[in-house]
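Protocol step 4 of 6: structure prediction from sequence.
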Amino acid sequence: MSEDLKKVFFESLLQEDNNKKISFRRATGIMLKDAPPETILSFYQTIPPYIKQYDENKWFFAICVACLNDPERVCQPFPVIAAEYKRRFGSNLGESYEHRFANLLDTRWEEDGFLISKLARFIKMVEHQGFAVAPDHLLKSLELWNAPSRIVQKEWAKLYSMSLVKEEENAD
């Protein structure tokens, strides 16, 4: 599926029934197999039919994150949001925040859901402060997460670092 079609797909989720969106929001951070039956049913009614089984958990997580977003908020890639969050609340976060972000980048995608649970905690934390994670960018990242070249982790580290530097330059 092209990136443009993914973006349209996630935008169309905003039109879904509120109960469906609530169900997905509640499932943020768990694997599809651990979701309540009504959420699993909603998932299969929502996704495009050609999604491969090995990608279902990635789609499920991205859909759950999309349902966390307020339609009024501008969605951005997660690393940019993580940097903005650090800028806003850095003095209260301590050194562990950047260490947790680095550990996230070092975690592999596995079917045990460990990466999803770590990522979900980060996303829920920033979402409560008014940020919205771009689900199409998140899905693209998850699809390539375990690539031997670590292209996603490098991109996230670069986006995070560039966002911090850009703000420091604007402050000067």
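Step 5 (inspection) to follow. The CA atoms of residues 20 and 136 lie 19 Å apart.
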